Structure formats: C-alpha cells, structure tokens
Amino acid sequence: MRKTLATIGGSALALVSGASFASIDYTSAVTSATTEVISAISAALPVGILVLSAVIGWRLFKRFAKG
Fold it and tell me: Burial code of 13-23, b = ≥16 C-beta within 10 A, e = fewer?
C-alpha cells in the first residue's frame, strides 16, 4: 500500500512540475486602475477641502460668537 501511494504521489509531482504555466502581465490593468484612482482623488480633493473648511469655520464661529 505504501509503495502504491508513493508511486501515485511521485507521478503527481512529476505532472505538476512538468506543466508550463503561462505568465500573465498585469501592468496594463494596474496602470489603468492607478490612473482612475488618481483622477478620482484629484476630483474629490477640492470638495473635501471645502467641506473641511466649512466645518472648521462653523466650529470657530460658534466658539467665538458666544461671548
């Protein structure tokens, strides 16, 4: 029984090591995804700065207008 399992295991190893795997080039996909993310961030950044400025300004107004 052990000899049969060893033979099966050895032949499976030979099949896996003998197989050729195609390499996949992901550079174009990563480049386009990076471009999309950068453009989304650059479009959302002015809006975020505007909202943050409004919140900080409102809090400062509330703090100093009480007095």
Answer: eeeeeeeeeee
